[in-house]
Amino acid sequence: MSVLEALGPPPDAAAILERVPELEPSRGLGQSPYHHLDTFGHTLEVVRRVDEELRAGTLGARVGPGRVEGLRLAALLHDVAKPVTRGELGGRVLFVAHDSVGALLVRRVCRRLGLAALPTDMAVTLTALHLKIGFMEHPEADYPPRRLALAAGPFGEELAVLSWADRLAAQGPRLKDEHIERHRRLCGRFLRASRELGPHPPPEYGGLARRLPGSPEAELGYVAALARLIAARGGGGDPLELARRLL
């Protein structure tokens, strides 16, 4: 059974841990009072909530059948870096930079598993951006709506679903109904921003393969994600060349 098959539905926890041992440290790892599950339990709940949203269509996101496995993979790996970034400050549990560190770990996992470019690209992109919808309206947000839509590129619909599932999977004692409603509104606003910038061209992994001959597919997916994130931040230069130099 591959890791994609282990994701179900329903997800097979034992098979997942066998194929992705990087998730083992998340078992029993406590989180903030906004969560009711440990980190691994939360991860599995996010995977379940993704499938629930795909059935319910609360957000109206348009996720094609060929994207579902990649979305489930992103849900599985989006918090993979929490064990290595966990800290406490003033009694608060923090996971500083677990999104960006997580994107690097996703690259390693996908390469080891020999995954294709598309699910790798989606998992890296969504892991790097999975917190951003919740903060995009802040005056000092590093990813306001338009930049976030550019960074997500062809995976905007999937990012909204993951963000919504992540919110619903955290049902701790500090959660209030208004938190959920606010996040539903933010996801809707992000989807509108993404669609206004669209249609987003599909990733062109063939061209990447010619520029990076001999690279495994997962590496092509990682480079595509990194180049898209670099391009969204601006600054000039060839994003693909900058991404290649960062390998």
UniProtKB/TrEMBL annotation:
Transmembrane regions: none
Gene3D superfamilies listed in its UniProt record: cca-adding enzyme, domain 2 (1.10.3090.10)
Entry-linked SUPFAM superfamilies: HD-domain/PDEase-like
The keyword Nucleotide-binding belongs to this UniProt entry's keyword annotation: yes
UniProt xrefs under InterPro entries: HD/PDEase_dom, HD_domain, tRNA_CCA-adding_enzyme
Keywords for this protein: Hydrolase, Nucleotide-binding
Protein name: Metal dependent phosphohydrolase
Residue ranges of coiled coil: none
Entry superkingdom: Bacteria
GO molecular function terms noted in the UniProt entry: hydrolase activity; nucleotide binding
Start and end residues of each HD/PDEase domain: 35-180
